[in-house]
Predict the structure.
Amino acid sequence: MAISGGCYCGAVRFEIDGQVRMRALCLCRTCQKISGGAGNLFIGLQADDFRYTHGEPRYFTRADVAEAPTREFCGECGVHLASRSPKAPGGMIVKVGTLDDPAVFAGPAMVFWAEQKQGFHRLPDDATVFPRLPGR
Ligand SMILES: [Zn+2]
Ligand SMILES: [Zn+2]
Protein backbone atom coordinates (compact mmCIF):
# COMPACT_ATOMS: atom_id res chain seq x y z
CA MET A 1 0.00 0.00 0.00
CA ALA A 2 1.53 3.32 -1.03
CA ILE A 3 1.34 6.19 1.44
CA SER A 4 1.66 9.71 0.11
CA GLY A 5 2.18 13.06 1.74
CA GLY A 6 3.78 16.46 1.53
CA CYS A 7 4.41 19.83 3.09
CA TYR A 8 1.92 22.61 3.77
CA CYS A 9 2.38 24.51 0.49
CA GLY A 10 2.69 21.51 -1.86
CA ALA A 11 6.21 22.32 -3.10
CA VAL A 12 7.55 19.04 -1.67
CA ARG A 13 5.70 15.75 -2.10
CA PHE A 14 6.71 12.20 -1.19
CA GLU A 15 5.59 8.62 -1.48
CA ILE A 16 6.20 5.59 0.71
CA ASP A 17 5.98 2.17 -0.87
CA GLY A 18 6.69 -0.39 1.79
CA GLN A 19 5.94 -1.40 5.34
CA VAL A 20 5.59 0.96 8.25
CA ARG A 21 8.15 -0.45 10.72
CA MET A 22 7.36 1.74 13.71
CA ARG A 23 4.52 3.90 15.02
CA ALA A 24 5.71 6.21 17.75
CA LEU A 25 5.36 9.37 19.77
CA CYS A 26 8.46 11.22 20.93
CA LEU A 27 8.13 13.65 23.83
CA CYS A 28 11.73 14.88 23.93
CA ARG A 29 12.26 18.63 24.18
CA THR A 30 13.48 18.81 20.58
CA CYS A 31 10.31 17.15 19.31
CA GLN A 32 8.20 19.43 21.49
CA LYS A 33 9.90 22.40 19.85
CA ILE A 34 9.49 21.04 16.33
CA SER A 35 5.93 19.74 16.67
CA GLY A 36 4.25 22.67 18.35
CA GLY A 37 4.46 21.26 21.85
CA ALA A 38 2.44 18.06 21.94
CA GLY A 39 5.34 15.81 20.94
CA ASN A 40 6.17 14.33 17.58
CA LEU A 41 4.04 11.56 16.10
CA PHE A 42 5.94 9.68 13.44
CA ILE A 43 6.28 6.50 11.45
CA GLY A 44 9.58 4.68 11.01
CA LEU A 45 10.46 3.03 7.74
CA GLN A 46 13.29 1.78 5.57
CA ALA A 47 14.77 4.76 3.73
CA ASP A 48 14.69 2.70 0.52
CA ASP A 49 10.88 2.68 0.70
CA PHE A 50 10.67 6.49 0.67
CA ARG A 51 11.10 8.87 -2.26
CA TYR A 52 10.39 12.48 -3.06
CA THR A 53 7.97 12.72 -5.99
CA HIS A 54 7.83 16.53 -6.34
CA GLY A 55 10.36 19.17 -5.34
CA GLU A 56 13.36 18.69 -3.11
CA PRO A 57 13.54 19.34 0.61
CA ARG A 58 16.15 21.39 2.37
CA TYR A 59 18.33 19.69 4.95
CA PHE A 60 19.46 20.79 8.38
CA THR A 61 21.90 19.08 10.72
CA ARG A 62 23.12 20.70 13.93
CA ALA A 63 26.91 20.98 13.81
CA ASP A 64 27.23 21.34 17.59
CA VAL A 65 25.58 17.98 18.45
CA ALA A 66 27.35 14.64 18.00
CA GLU A 67 25.57 12.26 15.61
CA ALA A 68 22.74 14.78 15.13
CA PRO A 69 19.86 13.72 12.88
CA THR A 70 19.40 15.46 9.56
CA ARG A 71 15.99 17.11 9.28
CA GLU A 72 14.31 17.41 5.91
CA PHE A 73 11.91 20.30 5.45
CA CYS A 74 10.25 22.43 2.78
CA GLY A 75 12.35 25.47 1.89
CA GLU A 76 9.20 27.37 0.91
CA CYS A 77 6.76 26.86 3.79
CA GLY A 78 9.20 25.46 6.37
CA VAL A 79 7.24 22.35 7.30
CA HIS A 80 9.42 19.57 8.67
CA LEU A 81 8.71 16.30 6.85
CA ALA A 82 11.25 13.66 7.80
CA SER A 83 14.48 12.90 9.65
CA ARG A 84 17.37 10.50 9.20
CA SER A 85 19.85 9.73 11.94
CA PRO A 86 23.38 8.35 11.70
CA LYS A 87 22.37 6.22 14.73
CA ALA A 88 19.83 4.36 12.53
CA PRO A 89 21.51 3.81 9.17
CA GLY A 90 19.12 2.78 6.41
CA GLY A 91 16.08 3.98 8.33
CA MET A 92 14.16 7.21 8.58
CA ILE A 93 11.13 8.72 10.23
CA VAL A 94 8.28 10.69 8.67
CA LYS A 95 5.97 13.03 10.58
CA VAL A 96 2.38 11.76 10.71
CA GLY A 97 0.92 15.24 10.17
CA THR A 98 2.48 15.39 6.69
CA LEU A 99 0.67 12.26 5.47
CA ASP A 100 -2.27 12.82 3.10
CA ASP A 101 -4.24 10.38 5.26
CA PRO A 102 -2.90 10.54 8.82
CA ALA A 103 -5.50 7.90 9.80
CA VAL A 104 -3.14 5.21 8.44
CA PHE A 105 -1.03 5.89 11.54
CA ALA A 106 -3.67 4.43 13.89
CA GLY A 107 -1.90 5.72 17.02
CA PRO A 108 1.51 5.23 18.61
CA ALA A 109 2.67 1.77 19.71
CA MET A 110 5.67 3.27 21.51
CA VAL A 111 6.42 6.47 23.39
CA PHE A 112 10.01 7.77 23.61
CA TRP A 113 11.58 10.24 26.05
CA ALA A 114 8.74 10.16 28.58
CA GLU A 115 11.17 11.59 31.16
CA GLN A 116 11.02 14.91 29.29
CA LYS A 117 7.25 15.05 29.07
CA GLN A 118 5.29 18.03 30.33
CA GLY A 119 2.59 17.82 32.99
CA PHE A 120 -0.08 18.47 30.37
CA HIS A 121 1.00 15.54 28.16
CA ARG A 122 -1.16 12.41 28.35
CA LEU A 123 0.41 9.02 27.69
CA PRO A 124 -1.62 6.61 25.53
CA ASP A 125 -2.90 3.59 27.50
CA ASP A 126 -1.90 0.92 25.00
CA ALA A 127 1.63 2.06 24.13
CA THR A 128 4.98 0.87 25.48
CA VAL A 129 6.55 3.84 27.24
CA PHE A 130 10.33 4.36 27.38
CA PRO A 131 11.95 6.98 29.67
CA ARG A 132 14.43 7.68 26.86
CA LEU A 133 14.96 5.43 23.85
CA PRO A 134 14.64 1.61 23.79
CA GLY A 135 17.89 -0.01 24.79
CA ARG A 136 19.51 3.19 26.13
ZN1 LIG B 1 6.03 23.65 1.47
ZN1 LIG C 1 12.12 13.49 20.07
Summary: Residues 26, 28, 30-31, 40, 113 surround zinc ion (ligand 2) (CB under 6 Å). The radius of gyration is 14 Å. The mean pLDDT is 96. The longest strand covers residues 40-46.
